[in-house]
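Researcher: I'm preparing a figure for a lab meeting and need a structural model of a single chain. I don't have an experimental structure, so a prediction will have to do for now. The sequence is pasted below. Please return the structure as tokens so I can convert it later.
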Amino acid sequence: MLPLVILLLSSSCVTLSSHIVREYYLIDMPKTWDQAQSYCRENYTDLATIANRDDLKRFLDTAVASSVSGEAWIGLKEGGEASWLWSVGASQTSDGLAVYTNWASAPDPSHHCGGMRGDGKWSSALCNATLPFVCQGGEGSSKNWYDRGCTSRFPFFCYTDKRVRHQMIVRVEIKANSILNLSDPAVSEAILNEIQQKHDTVKLQWRVQPDGKIFHKKEKKKIKEAS
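Model: Understood. Here is the structure written out token by token.
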């Protein structure tokens, strides 16, 4: 272990992080819910998942831009015991349970698939109905959900996941043993690795200064003696 103490996360360290933003696509080809799911999974990520108000806002922007006027499938399907699940499943939204919902009215017990009406409300439908659909890759409008039988044919919304990367520069002050050579690349790499172990959700790298150095010795302030 290096003989050093990290006092403040450092002046030459660039922190990189990222998060997922869903992008939605209206597919104006009437299909049953199962057909729409297969199409989205083959060509995008899955049928549209709307897990929070930010997703809803992006979804509504897509719906308005696509001039959606009728019903369209989203990734909702009944999972039993009055629960509704997202098509994308547990890997994307906890256990896949649709916690955030926006139903126009209580789902019909005989309907097992979900979609969005022209006014944006969510409701249930027969799964063999043929509708357009939304693949995936808010606030304001009152868009809600509905259920239908999954064999009904409607348009649908698909989505894809877009990874957004952020960069942040933070300054670190390091107190090190006087025999430690901070100009040695092996030493700077070892220090970075030690910091990285404590921050494994982001990627870290040193920021090289214009003079080619990573670290600069902090000069001690001289205290003037009173005359």
